[in-house]
Amino acid sequence: MIHHHYQAYYQTLDLAAENDVAQLLFPGWRNSLEKPFLFLGDFHPCLFTNLLRSFLEDSDDSEEGQYDFINKPYQFAVAWRNASKNLMVKIEQIERGLRLMVPELNSRVRVLQGEFLERVAVKWVKYEGRKGNLRGEVEEALVGKMEEMTCAFLDANRIRRSVLSEIMGATNVYQAALFLEALSQFLVGFRNADLISEFERKRENNRV
Amino acid sequence: MITREGAEETKEIDDTSETLKCLTLCKRDYTKREQKASATRLMKARWELEGLIEEQLNRYEVHYNRTMVPVRLKDVAQLLMPNWASPHELTAFAWLGDWRPSAVLSLLHSLTHSAFPSPSSLSNSVGMERLLSQLINDIRIEEAVLDEEMAEIQSTCILHLRPSPTDYWAGGLTLESVRSEIKKINGVITKAHQLRFKALKLVVKKVLARTDAAEFLIAFMGIQELIHEITTQNRFTKGPVSVPVKALAPA
């Protein structure tokens, strides 16, 4: 159910991107707490695998006594104990994929921006920096690049979506529930109104 | 007598030629002085140009040093997605909140290829071409390193910013934990700014001659302004994005 919600959320982003990708890459509706953590418009896909890993690593040294048994059945408490070897293999596989895909996306954006500036430079020389038709031609170039940027954004979302569904596929129902709970808690944390207002007021004393 | 007269005549002639000589000398002096003066003017203009370029570079340096020091935590978000720029502008050329360092060098590359500003001195220079592509390569690598650093922070932040699964009641996000993450991100932005300035300095000081550097700075500013103008006009300010409700219905 929650998984469906996430999938629907990313599909919505995809649809909106076809309308105007720039507003999704630099979303004004995100608060200043969230913005620094966004990668191509949303959270980084590696965040999902890191969360999953943290469950597996925590389970090694966690004490049963610390767990909240009152509200949760025993199955949740032991969900990560003796997690199958397959799950570890699966995580590594997903991570390997991400290590290839993420830098590839970064360089794709770089190439797209480079191509755009190159075209602008050519026009700039052609019209000797005088306005004239320069504006129109640069505009055309920009519209064209936005379309290609949309593809890059859709790919970033596709990666996020597929990492999520692969994790859902690799975990059992208790593990998946705990995973989604933690993910949602994490995301909701960014929307904590008290924290945001404190955050926005807070001065950074130790300057860099 | 004759000898005396002759001597006087000779003297007169001597005087005349002396005067002539003097005149030519004076004239040569004058021309020389003129040349010297204009050379001085040229030198002065050169110094002035150098001074102006230096000033412009300093301005960039101050700009990046100033923006590097965020006063409040939320300023980091402002650095990454500044309000003054439209989303399209940022999409078109921003990297970690401002122009991409490697793009400056590529810009120079394509400007020189489109015969700017003096084709003879620039585009034919094989040495410069080689130097430029070497620099583009180096800067790209440094960019990729910073991309990696940023990705590392963004993807491990969940480990620091969520309640521990074994300590369920410890509460969610705390200001302290956020602060340390934001600080790391700010560190990356600082390095990005330094890289930007480095790229610009390389172009202006190493690659280009003075007059070309001036032309380049003008084009660099002009192009940024142009893109800003274009992206803030009606066509690109579409208002909030929306998705038709029908499209959201489960398939």
From TrEMBL, chain A:
Listed GO biological process terms: DNA-templated transcription
Domain of life: Eukaryota
UniProt GO molecular function: sequence-specific DNA binding
Residue ranges constituting the DOG1 domain according to the UniProt record: 1-200
Annotated InterPro entries: Seed_Dev/Stress_Resp_Reg, TGA_domain
Protein name according to UniProt: Transcription factor TGA like domain
UniProtKB/TrEMBL annotation, chain B:
Gene Ontology BP terms: DNA-templated transcription
Taxonomic classification: Eukaryota, Viridiplantae, Streptophyta, Embryophyta, Tracheophyta
Record-given protein name: Transcription factor TGA like domain
InterPro entries: OCM_Kinase, TGA_domain
Pfam families listed in its UniProt record: DOG1
Entry's Gene Ontology molecular function annotations: sequence-specific DNA binding
Organism domain of life: Eukaryota
Residue span(s) of domain DOG1: 17-237
